[in-house]
Design goal:
Strand content: 35-45%
Number of domains: 1
Largest sheet: 4 strands, antiparallel
Helix content: 10-25%
Protein name: RNA recognition motif-containing protein
GO molecular function, one term: RNA binding
Structural class: alpha+beta
Number of helices: 2
CATH topology: Alpha-Beta Plaits
Number of strands: 8
Low-confidence stretches: 92-104
CATH superfamily: RRM (RNA recognition motif) domain
Strand order of the largest sheet: 2-3-1-6
Pfam families: RRM_1
Order of helices and strands: EHEEHEEEEE
Shape: globular
InterPro entries: Nucleotide-bd_a/b_plait_sf, RBD_domain_sf, RRM_dom, SLIRP/GR-RBP-like
Radius of gyration: 17 Å
Keywords: RNA-binding
Length: 104
C-alpha cells in the first residue's frame, strides 16, 4: 500500500522516516518530494509498505500526530486519475499574443 504523508518538517531525511515507518513493518520504498531548483524538502512524501495491515496501522497511529514539532497527516495515497493525455508532464504551452508562455 502506498501512503501519503504531509506536514513533514523540512529537515527530516529519508533514512529517519524509513526508520519511523519501519517500526510498523517493512518499508518497500520511501520518497520525500523536493523542490527541483533548491533540492529542499517540500514537506510531503510517499511511503510504500508491502503488507496492507502494517500500512493501515501506521496510518492509524501516525495520522494527526506530532512529528518533530509538526502535525502530520498520513493517509492512503490516491492514484492520479488518467486524463487520457499523451503523457509527458511538467505543464504545457499556451499561446498568448503570439508568444509561448509556460503554464503549470
Amino acid at each position: 500500500m502506498k501512503i501519503f504523508i504531509t506536514g513533514l518538517p523540512l529537515e527530516v531525511g529519508e533514512d529517519e522516516l524509513t526508520a519511523v515507518f519501519g517500526d510498523f513493518g517493512q518499508v518497500k520504498s520511501l520518497r520525500i518530494i523536493k523542490d527541483r531548483e533548491t533540492g529542499q524538502s517540500r514537506g510531503f512524501g510517499f511511503v510504500e509498505m508491502p503488507v496492507d495491515e502494517e500500512a493501515k496501522e501506521a496510518i492509524k497511529r501516525m495520522n494527526g500526530g506530532d512529528y518533530n514539532g509538526n502535525r502530520i497527516k498520513v493517509a492512503e495515497a490516491q492514484e492520479k486519475p488518467n486524463t487520457g493525455g499523451a503523457g509527458g508532464g511538467g505543464g504545457g504551452f499556451k499561446r498568448n499574443n503570439n508568444n509561448r508562455e509556460r503554464s503549470y
